[in-house]
Structure formats: C-alpha cells, structure tokens
Amino acid sequence: MGPLSGVRVVELEAIGPAPFCGMLLADMGADVLLVDRRADSGLGLEQERWSDFMLRGRRSITLDLKSTQGAQALLRLAERADALIEGFRPGVLERLGAGPDVLLTRNPRLVVGRMTGWGQNGPLAARAGHDIDYVARSGLLAAIGPDDAPLPPLNVVGDFGGGGMLLAFGMACALFEARASGRGQVVDAAMIDGASLLATMFHGLVAADRWSERRHDNLLDGAAPWYSTYRTRDGRFVAVGALEPKFYAELLRGLGLASERLPAQYDRAAWPALRARFATAFAERTRDEWMTVFAASDACVAPVLTFSEARNDEHALAREGFVDVDGVAQPAPAPRFSRTPGQVRSAPPLRGAHGESALRDWGFTQDEIEGLRAMGVEGSP
C-alpha cells in the first residue's frame, strides 16, 4: 500500500527533520530501514521510544558507523537501497568513508538526501544551530510575534516545514527522475532554504510595498482586529480570520454588532478601538458558546484547540485525521490518496527490532546477513 511502495530507504539515526522525512516516506509506503546507534554506545540512548512518533513505520538495525567495518556495512546496505537519508553536519559522512561520491559509485541509482540547517556549503555550513537560528536568519522570525519581540513559532517552520518536509519532497522528485535516467543524485535540503521558501509570498508583498517589516503591523500578523485571537469568558481563545468584507459582515452579525456604528473594516487608525470592542464582545461568552453561535456561519471563527482537544474535534473525527497505533493516538498520514493510501504500519521500533527480517526482505541471503553481523550489524530476527 502507498504510492512509494517498493522504494527502499536507508535512514541514519538523527533528530528532528531527518526522522520526520523518514516518517513521511514510510507513511507513503516506502520500506525505511533505520540504522540506529548501538544502545551501549555511551551516549545515554534510550531504548524505549514508543512516544517518538516520527520513528513510526520502520524496522531498525544497530551499527557503529565510526568503525571501518560499520562504514563498510553501510555501503553494503546502500547498494540495495533506492535512497539514503542522513542528518549529520557537512563532511561527517565523508569522514566516515561513506560520502556521496563513494555511495554513488557503489550504487549509481541512489538518491542521497542530506538534511542540515545551513546547507552543504556557505560560510555557516559547519556551524551549529537549531530551528530558531535558521528561521531567524531567513527573515521569518522577525515577522512573527507581538511588536515588542519576535516569538518562536515552535520548531515547525525550520525543522519540519522547511526541513523534513522539504527533504521528503526533494527525495520524491529525485526518485521520480532516477526512474527515467537511471542515475541518482544528492538532495541538499537546508532548513534556512526551506524557511525562506515558505516566506515566498511575503517577499513578494515586501517588493510591492504591501507589507510592513514591523511586527504586528499587517493584515496577517495579528495587527488587524478581524485576523487575530480573542480570550473568551472561560479563559480559552477563539481565532478570527474574517479577511474578506462578506466574511467580516458575518463576524459582526455573529457578535451582535451589525447595528452598531463601528469604524470601517480597513480604517487602520481605528483598529485599536475596533479590537477593544471585539475583545469585550468575545469575553461575554465561553469559547464553546461562541462556536455554537458561529456553527453555521462563514465568519471564519474557529476554536483555539489544544493538541489533546484537536484529536477529538468533530472535523478530525469525521476525516479520521488521527490514527491509533498500539493504543496511542497520533496524526494520520497525509496527504490523502484515492487509490494508494498511506498508512502507519508499526509503532516506533526499539533499537535493532526486526532488522534481520528487513535484511531478508531486501534480498540479503543468510550468509550475507551473517557477514553483515560480523561487520557490526545487529538486528533481532
């Protein structure tokens, strides 16, 4: 099942965007073999990983890549793979003796996906960083938050949207091209590139002088009173996105303000007064009472749900937006396919879980498996 059924991927253990990419590929049917570090590596690695949902759908082997034999074993695995995912700093894979030149010599059809923050080249390539750093340097962070300070948008912009998802898209493109050309290639996915790409629309607005580079001063950054959030009587929040005049009129009707003499929607000087009036109105009822008021309305008003609430929201339930994996609810594979749907095939694996069966499925004979075991590959039968 899944549009990537039959694609074999070697994924080297990493954190953040690399395993997110592996999850996306596995959800879509790819056979992703996770090469984990050994539990006794001295790094304090945790064996029990049931809550690391991004590792779902894999089988695992353990391997010491710092050893000569371990690096040679990785090359043997790459020979049978269609793609490989790595999230090391630039140059690490090369120092292990398994850089792209070596990999592509052993397997010319291989797609090598490289996930970094700064990219494989440039003055910052070797520097450490985290999501907030890449998003900051992309220009996006300066645009997010209240006017007194930028606000980190969790780590979804750099790590996952601009990182893992971008890498998954790049690898899918390269795999598609390799089927026609018979040649693999390197996919250089950098979180700073992805964060910049996500902001493409805003670069256009800045170029057209339609976007202020001051925070909280634009239509989509919370400055507009009809594109913002409001606290309700029970201390919860609602989100309002009534951008278009017809939706704005619906908002006023739902709030009971249609007959009041209010400033014009786009009268920026009056936005503070309009925001204060909306805040007073929303504070008169609870969040769920407002949802009843706007249930059949196009006012673009939505409840601000917690992660726990979102799992049980009526729309998520109707679309089966969450799946149960070993008794634990988590987001379902997306996007949806009409003929070859994705699925979560298994919970996150323990280190080395079912690695030997994966090797057999990948076409290794028992003698070859024993040879890999002698090179340091460990995996439960």
Strand content: 5-15%
Helix content: 25-40%
CATH superfamily of the largest domain: Crotonobetainyl-coa:carnitine coa-transferase, domain 1
- CATH topology (level 3) name of the largest domain: Rossmann fold
> What spatial form do the alpha-carbon principal axes imply?
elongated
Which spans of ≥5 residues are poorly predicted at pLDDT below 50? none
CATH architecture of the largest domain: 3-Layer(aba) Sandwich
Q: Cα distance, first to last residue? A: 24 Å
Radius of gyration: 25 Å
Spatially, the strands of the biggest sheet line up as 3-2-1-4-5-6
The ordered H/E elements are EHEEHEHHEHHEHHEEHHHEHHEEHH
Task: Summarize the main sheet.
Answer: 6 strands, parallel
Text of the CATH class of the largest domain: Alpha Beta
Estimated structural class: alpha/beta
Structure description:
With 381 residues, the chain is an alpha/beta fold. It has 15 helices and eleven strands. It has helices at 17-27, 68-79, 92-95, 100-106, 131-138, 156-181, 191-198, 200-207, 245-255, 271-282, 287-293, 307-311, 314-318, 355-361, 366-374; strands at residues 8-12, 31-36, 59-62, 83-86, 111-116, 185-190, 227-231, 237-241, 301-303, 322-325, 328-331. Strands 3-2-1-4-5-6 form a six-stranded parallel sheet, with helices on both faces.
